[in-house]
UniProtKB/TrEMBL annotation:
InterPro entries from the UniProt entry: Aldolase_TIM, TIM_sf, TrioseP_Isoase_bac/euk, Triosephosphate_isomerase, Triosephosphate_isomerase_AS
Family: Belongs to the triosephosphate isomerase family.
Any matching Pfam family: TIM
GO CC terms: cytosol
Pathway: Carbohydrate degradation; glycolysis; D-glyceraldehyde 3-phosphate from glycerone phosphate: step 1/1; Carbohydrate biosynthesis; gluconeogenesis
UniProt keyword annotations, A-Z: Cytoplasm, Gluconeogenesis, Glycolysis, Isomerase
SUPFAM superfamilies: Triosephosphate isomerase (TIM)
Protein name: Triosephosphate isomerase
Catalytic activity: D-glyceraldehyde 3-phosphate = dihydroxyacetone phosphate
NCBIfam families the record matches: tim (TIGR00419)
Amino acid sequence: MARQILIAGNWKMNKGAADGAQLIKDLKAQFGSGCSCCCSGAKKPEVLVCPTFTTLSAVVAEAQGSCLLVGAQNIHWADQGAFTGEISGAMLKECGVTHVIIGHSERRQYFGETDATVNQRLKAALKNGLTAVVCVGETLAEREAGTTNVVVERQVRGALADISADDMKKVVIAYEPVWAIGTGKVASDEQAQEVHAFIRGLLKVMFSCPCVADSTRILYGGSMNAANAAGLLAQPDIDGGLIGGASLKPADFATIVKAAAQA
Ligand SMILES: O=C[C@H](O)COP(=O)(O)O
C-alpha cells in the first residue's frame, strides 16, 4: 500500500512568534508558490511544522494558504482544569493546529512521561480530531544490551492500548533512537529499516485488520539531515522523518522534503 510520506519538523524549544513566522516565510520561499514547485511531477509529501505553544498562532497565520501543516509538541489528557503548564486538545484546536507530537523521548527523559501518560495524551488527541505523532525509541544502553525490540514493543503497545483500527487512521509512529537525537550519529539505513519493519510487524500482530500495519506511517527521527535523508527515505518501511535541528534551517528542510518527493 502506498503511504504518503510525512516530513515533520520538531522545532523543540526554539523560535518565538516573530522568528517562527519568519521561518515559515523562508520555507515558503524555498517551496515556491503554493508549495507545489518542489514536488511537481513527483509524489507530494505532507509537510508539518511543530513550534512551541506560544508560536503556534503566528505560525498558523503565516502558513495559511500554503502546503504547511502545523502541529504542537504536547497535549494534556484533560479538557481543562488545574494542570499548571499544560495545554488541552481544545486549546490546540482553537489555535488552528491539526497535529500533535506525543511521547517524545525528551518528554520521557526530562518530564516523567510514561507509556501510560502517552496513551492518555494520544486518546485526548484523537478525541479532539488531531493527528498524533507518537514517538518511541531505545536508549544507547538499551541498544547495546540487545533490548531495542523489547523496549520499542513495550512503548508501542503502551501507547496504543485501547486504540482501535479506526483510530489508527490518525496515528503516525515516529521511531527515534534516543542515541541518534541531536548527536549527529544517525542510525544507518539498515538499522532504521530493521526497527521500522519490526514495528510494522508488531502492528500486524496487534490489529486483526492488516490495513493498519499497511497504512500506518512510521517516521524516522534522529539526526536526519539534508545529506542522509534520501537513503533513509528510500527504505521500504520508512514513511518520512521527524526532524529536529535540520528543520530550523529552511534550505536543509526543503532539501529533505524534495528527497521525500523522490523517494
Ligand atoms: O523530534 C525530533 C528528533 O528529536 C530529532 O532531532 P534531531 O533531528 O535534532 O536529531
